[in-house]
Amino acid sequence: MTSVQEQLFDVRGVRALVTGAASGLGLAMAEVLSACGAHVTLADVDEARLEPAASALGENARFFVADVSDEEQVRALVEDVVSAEGGLDVVFANAGIAAVPGYGISGGQLLETVERSDWDRVLGVNLNGVLFTMKHSAAVMKRQGSGRIVVTSSTAGLKPEPAVCYGYVASKAAVLNMVRHAALELARFGVHVNAICPGPFKGTRIGGGVTEDPTPELERMWSSTVPLRRMAEPDELKGLVLLLASPASSFITGAAYVIDGGTFAQAGA
Predict the structure, then answer these.
(1) Is the pLDDT score of 105 beyond 50?
(2) What is the per-residue pLDDT for 104?
């Protein structure tokens, strides 16, 4: 890279936290940050996957087991990062779930089938978890006078998506407005807040993990909805992650970045 490129996308020594990092998009986020020299804490509720995921990234990575739907666990997570690293520069609030096991195949969820327990569970992670992660990270960043918070929403938060559950679309839409709200509040403290809105990606555990290694049927179904005619690979998120974590995004806040192979554009939005 040229010196200009190195300066723009330099995350060496950056103290980063990624939730939902044991697999899928969260792991891809942690991979690119670690590979580019950031000190990354991977957080997830799945300890069995989390420890080997962090170990594979080498000396720049560490891990912390936490359920983001529990505010005290999130508080402890952030305190642990600050204690170990001396501060917190970049947070990817990525942890998310969906309640419908047949994600994409069953045709989503009918309104009359919404169970309160499923609704509460999805919002507990996707909405409350984001709030708690933003809240405790922002408190540290305000004191520092700098920081970046990136929230994983979804194209399902921007438009109707019949293939997913009601709790998922509601929570992913809600976090987008939280991002804009927080971006306005935190801008004067030098804290940037943005969102990523992925479309259909392979390798995720959303909806019971059916897209982690999608069947040919599921892959054909999702690919048919995308102008580029395929699902994305987790690695294809890494460029956007690096942009939003680095000085290259120095004048970007309150934004939502769609990365979906053109699906949202064809919806006429």
Answers:
(1) no
(2) 47
Distance CA 163, CA 33 (A): 31
pLDDT at residue 211, rounded to an integer: 60
Cα 45 from Cα 85, distance rounded (Å): 21
Given a contact cutoff of 8 angstroms between Cβ atoms, the answer to whether 90 and 14 are in contact is yes
> Catalytic site residue 103?
no
Closest CA to 103 of 47, 153, 50, 156: 156
Phi, psi of 16 (to 5 degrees): -120, 150
Neighbouring residues of 79: CB distance < 8 A, sequence distance ≥ 6? none
Dig out the tokens for 42 from the structure.
């991977």
Given the residues 103, 166, 168, 257, select the one marked as catalytic: 168
Q: Is the pTM of this model over 0.90?
A: yes
In the numeric block, which tokens belong to residue 146?
């700098």
d(CA 132, CA 122): 15
Q: Sketch out the chain's domains with CATH numbers.
A: 3-255 (3.40.50.720)
Query: Comparing C-alpha atoms, which of 104, 81, 73, 90 is closest to residue 199?
Result: 104
38-to-46, 129, 142, 244 alpha-carbon distances in Å: 23, 24, 20, 13
Per residue in 58-67, pLDDT (tens digit) is 999 999 999 9
| Model pLDDT, residue 21 | 98
Give the pLDDT of residue 163. 78
225: nearest Cα among 104, 135, 73: 104
Residues 132-149 pLDDT 10s: 999 999 999 999 999 999
